[in-house]
Predict the 3D structure of the following.
Amino acid sequence: MAMEFIVETIHKETIKPSSPTPPSLKIFKLSLLDQFAPSMRVPLIFWYPNDTDAGDHDFAKAKEKSHRLKESLSKTLACLYPFAGRISSSSSIECNDEGVYYVETRVNCHLQAIFKQPDRELLRKLIPTQFESGEETTGPIVLVKVNFFDCGGMAICISNPHKTGDVSTGSLFINSLAAMARGSSELVISEPVSLSTLFPPMDIPSVVYDAHFNAEKFPTKRLVFDASKILMLKAEAVSANVPQPTRVQAVTALIWRCAIDAATSNRGGFRKLSALNLPVSFRKKLNPPLPENCIGNVISPCVVQTTDSEYGLQVLVLKLRNGVREFNEKSVKNLQGISAIPTILESVKACGDLFKRDDIDFYNCTSWCRSGLYEADFGWGKPKWVSTGDYTMPNVFTLMDSSNGEGIEAWVSLCEAEMVFFERNKVLLRYASVDPSVTL
């Protein structure tokens, strides 16, 4: 039986930038890629155990950490000023310095108890929401919730809308905030760069991926692939065409195959065609590469499909490799210059058309591996665990590094009936642990 705990709100406020945004920077344009991003929030929880000798909650230390966080957040917002504004239309952010939502809580349990049995339903209590901020539709871009535990540990959740950026943008904000908090001499935050000059926004309805689902119907499982099991999996995925599969390719292919099996079993043995969308980042692939301070979504759909008989592990790995290779060799060139807008519109339409087809099982897989999330040191060490939050649609796989950087944690969301088959798949269980304890 899952443990229970109470999350008590002890303080909340709006944190504003430490200095005003100049009038010339009051409008930050979103790009066409931002317009096509799904209307969903991406919460990330950073977990910091209490590594001192004190076994109980230290209110003085908690107050000091709170002060440091709020002061650093204010200074960071002065540099990354769009995050302190409000999305004013489908194509722009009004940089009005209205600030971000900040809340602190007290949690009546020890961090180790959650690590022993992380329960997704209970972890939702640690995530800030627009409804909680009191401004559900027109509220802050960034939501921050700092949860203090009885043991002195803490969990910091930062939630950003996908419309304002991909995981690289999120990592830029989080690690800039962390560097500001620890007083890093290496901190250099350049003025944010909009991608709207490369990918101008258009007057289009933002409905491509904006179907809203009831998250309660779509259970999510956390799969942990240890480094040793990934080596075994990669050995199974080796073929003449792919002699050295990457760990992300091998894990993605296995999850995709097991999802196909689950959907097939749920239909009594009838297997549909399957498609997998791999949003590919091309920040560093353009010529010249984009600067680190570009804010927004710099990802493009990359869809691979199965045929009636081709869904073995080695075949799927080959399809993944060829799909990304083709994107790198062909699509990246077309994402520059006058062909960029037609290329984006064509790829989004093709992806959306597949998503709507009843004869295809459609999945989305995003890799956040090597994105720097475990670098978020606010002055009390790097996080021991980074977790994500709820999904608003099924058939989504999100891959993240494990804390040691060698393993992979995959958060998989499927419909309830298919998840029953998926989590019991013997091939999957050969390589992955389902919802295990968090290993420190």
